[in-house]
Amino acid sequence: MDIQRPHRRRVLSLLGGAAAVGVSGRAFAQTDSSRAEPPKPAQIVVNHSGGSMGSAMRKAFFNGFEKKYGIRVVETSPVDFGKLRAMVDSGNVEWDLTEIGGQDAIRASKMNLLDKIDPKVVDRSKYPPTAQNPHVFASSVYTTIIGYRTDVFKGGTHPKSWADWWDVKKFPGARSMRNHPTDNLEFALIADGVPKDKVYPIDFDRAFKKLDQIKPHVTAWWSTGQQPAQLLLDKEVVLATGWNGRFYDVIKKGGPIEIEWNEGALKQGSFAIPRGAKNPYWANKMLAELAIPQQQAVYASELGYPGLNLESLNFVDAKVKPYLPTAYLDKQFWISDEWYAENGTKAAELWNAWMLKKA
Fold this sequence. Notes:
The structure is a single chain. Helix content is 42%, strand content 16%. The protein has helices at residues 8-36, 51-69, 81-90, 102-110, 162-166, 181-191, 204-214, 227-233, 244-251, 280-290, 293-303, 337-356; strands spanning 43-47, 72-76, 97-100, 137-149, 175-178, 218-222, 239-243, 257-272, 333-334. The longest helix is centred in the N-terminal third of the chain and has 29 residues, at 8-36.
């Protein structure tokens, strides 16, 4: 068979065509890749509680996100479950990401108000199993613990358990507790000998019977987060239950207060993506930013409320680490949002009735 050699022009034409195919192949791959990542919006909207928390989130997460992606982060507040529900039901969702309380997060998940978090975008492999809800991102953790005046309880002589807290003879002095069933019901049962991992379901009768014993020694029932630390500073009480971040804020300013972490009641701060959000991919990207351990360390140093990427402790200043609840997880217990979602109304009714009784 006589095979003719192609003319030079023909060869060049073929080569040019191959090159064109190669170029267009790369271009197609780039186009296909860009389709996998939606176009960048001018902004995303993050709804949260505001105040010092908002300032800390701006420093730790939002500024970096804006610099990294060129997308402005618009902040709104306050957190509002009713508004979240109305937005989703109407199909007019203003928020791309919103903070949400523990019990509300459970309700929202059951009511199909939230998008699933994309595990391909948000890495939670270093998070505890309790903090890997498919619809809810655990952004931080805080705890209710014992705060005490160091000039009254010197050299480790302070109460170190809830049984000690109830022992007013060994540990005398005015006390302050939160005017709320959450934490107090659990503390009462633990003081009465219930192991902290066996608190739920709560035995109301047993808990309130134990609370009857401590009620005469509680001189102030607090309702806002800043009150316990202020009561201690003003010497109105010598012992107070309170949120670790509020005590930490006073301690880092030199206040005569310290913390006992044993048997603290842990809770997580949470964020979620509303179903129907305009920019769900970029909301997931923001959650990914919130999961970076180095950035969580910045946030923890500001407020004392660390993230739940346990590697973040490796990036926290040695002076700050002793004031973070994640350094003491094994000593504490988690408040059950699931139990309160089912029983919270009854608990509140019983608590309010109990508060009206004379000590």
